[in-house]
Amino acid sequence: MVILEIAFYIFIAVVGIQVFFYGIIFNSLTRHKVIKPKQKNISVSVIICAKNEAENLKKNLPLIMTQDYSDFEVILINDDSTDDTLKVLEEFQEKHNNIKIVNVKSVEKFWGNKKYALTLGIKAATHNFLLFTDADCKPLSTYWIKEMTSHFSNDKTIVLGYGAHKKIKGSFINKLIRYETFLTAIQYLSYAALGQPYMAVGRNLAYRKEQFFETNGFMQHMHIKSGDDDLFINQVAKASNTTICITKESFTESIPKQSLKDWTIQKRRHITTANHYKLKHQFFLATFYCSQLLFWILAITLLIVMFNWKIVVGLIILRFLVQFINLFLASKKLNEKDLPLLSPLLELFLIVFQFFIFIKNMISKPKYWK
What we know:
Layout: H1 2-25, H2 27-31, E1 44-50, H3 54-65, E2 72-79, H4 85-95, E3 99-104, H5 114-124, E4 129-134, E5 137-139, H6 144-149, E6 158-160, E7 163-165, H7 172-193, E8 205-208, H8 209-214, H9 230-236, E9 242-244, E10 252-254, H10 260-271, H11 279-304, H12 309-334, H13 343-363
Parallel strand pairs: 1-2, 1-4, 2-3, 6-9, 7-10
Antiparallel strand pairs: 4-8, 5-10, 6-8
Helix pairs in contact: 1-11, 1-12, 3-4, 7-13, 10-13
Enzyme class: transferase
Pfam families: Glycos_transf_2
Protein name: Glycosyltransferase
């Protein structure tokens, strides 16, 4: 009985923590006003790193090259591909005079390290303003460059954008992947809106070239195979130099993994970087995840034994109500309106999946980026 009482009071605290995160922290994104700053006619270098992406480049590069923007170049990095990636890049270069190819050969010291290839691409960029996306990504409008770069200012040298995943009808795995992407975006965009930026996604990110070299680029974490986006931003971003862009015209979309196995391999690489975040960011992220996990464990346990079940049910309803309201409002801004209704089911599966990834990474190290 004493154990159940302790569990009950812990559950109350856990619900309070969850309401705090969803109702206050994540609410900063829903309260963020989507503004369109005055367009700036700055010269931009769009940087795309590709490793064995021949087919995706054929589909997505035309959408980059036809952007409604007056002055931009495209830096295409072939990261030691073994397919026809280089050939595809050269074919596009023949048709467009604003394409520059950086052909990266394998170097033993940096084998399998995307950061090495990106560094060479950044060095090759002519312009100071850099905009990043991936080879399997496409901008969702012809105004992508214009929208993202319009948020640069004298103070704001880093712009965080949203990179969605394509919807695939009838696929639960697709919904789960998109929900994880959506929830991750809510977190990093919300914290940035509160003046506590801690990560970004390379599918849609912009910063100044001088920002990169003033902080020695990726050198602090070059030994870590992943993290060219989130670890770099965790290192250099702060309230004074970072802003967010969440206009729908600024979004990109990538093709998600279509099997749980492939997604697991991808997430195993991604999740290793969180251990290298600043301690305060690790604390907040761990607190949120642990409170999610405890919410489900304690809610199910207390309901099974019917301990103070009326209060428990009331707290569960409160937590899900606050969660749904804020996910719904965020989904309208990020154009993911089909996800909030499924959030309880998707959240449960995601928590179990993340716990599995954590255990698996403790047993063995994940492989390189591709």
